Amino acid sequence: MKLYNFFRSSASYRVRIALNLKGVPYEYVPIHLRRGGGEQYTPAYKALNPQGIIPTLEDDGRVLTQSLAILEYLEERYPEPALLPRDPADRATVRSMALAIACEVHPLQNLRVLNYVKDVLHHTEEETNAWGRHWVTQGLTALEQMVRAVANRGAFCFGSAPSLADLCLVPQLVNARRFGCDLSACPTLVQIDATCCALPAFADAAPENQPDAE
Amino acid sequence: MKLYNFFRSSASYRVRIALNLKGVPYEYVPIHLRRGGGEQYTPAYKALNPQGIIPTLEDDGRVLTQSLAILEYLEERYPEPALLPRDPADRATVRSMALAIACEVHPLQNLRVLNYVKDVLHHTEEETNAWGRHWVTQGLTALEQMVRAVANRGAFCFGSAPSLADLCLVPQLVNARRFGCDLSACPTLVQIDATCCALPAFADAAPENQPDAE
């Protein structure tokens, strides 16, 4: 199994945590998002992933893209430990938390969008950061409410073990801190993050512990 | 089953198609995204969905949010007709197509983001439309490559029956046309769209056929 990814990419980080939790060994193939105009735009990489984004997983000759699709694939291929509960409505709750980050927060603050706000819409560095901060703070504040609404929640976003929701939360909080977001409205998320980061599967997947970390 | 939604919302449209395909009856509860500053921001609605976005599905006393989480829930509760193939790698391919729209295109061109570009970043109507057009065109062009890469594809994005990918594609093409996107690079998607729209489940879910259509 080969994971094309970048140490700082939060979508890559989600997949690294899942591979670690499930104990699946993989080859780390770094794709540098800034070097040479972005290695994700080379013809060789775009032949694998026409979206020109990371991560991409190669397994058994199949090429898989989109981090959440990869996480669901790993869940189906390697069911233990489970990253989704068993009840359909509970599964929907966990997926909705993951998507609250993956669809409402992350897409608005990733590198290509920040570059567009800065370079094409001609905003200053500070205005561009304010853009990122706005969407991250708004999205995390909503997620805090979603997580608090879970009855008998346990130490994680849903229950007493990490789920897809936690795999999306932890990388997003790294970005939130980079943007200087005020997280005082999200004490539950901050506590869950600390619980997760103490686990080796999360720590080993952290950006600073990857081979291409700068 | 109650679906809180808005005729023009493409995330709502995805769920309406799934409910129709699976023959699940539901109560249509309109949430007007522009009226009175946005009915999605009322305390009553935000108690259901703290994200202040649509759709929300109420079923058996459970409140579910995020359209893709709702689609997966419907797939688990009402497996026929299946909206995902059986093989894990094929499922990942279909999900990656759905997410290529739900994570890379739709979040960048929905109403709240367009409003922010216009009202907070102070761009003109034309610049704001150009923003939407840019992300939609880029995302659909990548999806065209993903769909063309499927071996023995059939008439839909993946295979010979509608999948989650088609449920995301058709509503996105409505938006693409509203933005005036040039779809000449996406002939396969345009053809799949026409095939889908000829099916009653898709036609009955179209914005113009909803009770709150203007």
Question: SSE layout and pairings?
Answer:
Two copies of one chain form a homodimer.
Chain A: E1 2-5, H1 10-21, E2 27-30, H2 43-48, E3 56-59, E4 62-65, H3 67-77, H4 88-102, H5 111-120, H6 125-148, H7 164-179, H8 187-197, H9 200-203
Parallel strand pairs in A: 1-2
Antiparallel strand pairs in A: 1-3, 3-4
Helix pairs in contact in A: 1-3, 1-7, 4-7, 5-6, 6-7, 7-8
Structural description of this entry:
Two copies of one chain form a homodimer. Chain A has 214 residues and is an alpha+beta fold. Chain A folds into two domains: 2-80, 3-Layer(aba) Sandwich (Glutaredoxin); 88-201, Up-down Bundle (Glutathione S-transferase Yfyf (Class Pi), Chain A, domain 2). Helix content of chain A is 51%, strand content 7%. The first copy, chain A, has nine helices and four strands, in the order βαβαββααααααα. Chain A has helices at 10-21, 43-48, 67-77, 88-102, 111-120, 125-148, 164-179, 187-197, 200-203, and strands at residues 2-5, 27-30, 56-59, 62-65. The first copy, chain A, has a four-stranded mixed sheet, with helices on one face. In chain A, helix 1 (10-21) packs parallel to helix 3 and helix 7 (164-179) crosses helix 8 (187-197). The longest helix of chain A is centred in the middle third of the chain and has 24 residues, at 125-148. The radius of gyration of chain A is 17 Å and the shape is globular. At the A-B interface, strand 4, helix 3, helix 4, helix 5 and helix 6 of A face strand 4, helix 3, helix 4, helix 5 and helix 6 of B.
Name a few traits of the molecule:
homodimer; 214 residues; Glutaredoxin; 2 domains; four-stranded mixed sheet; 51% helix
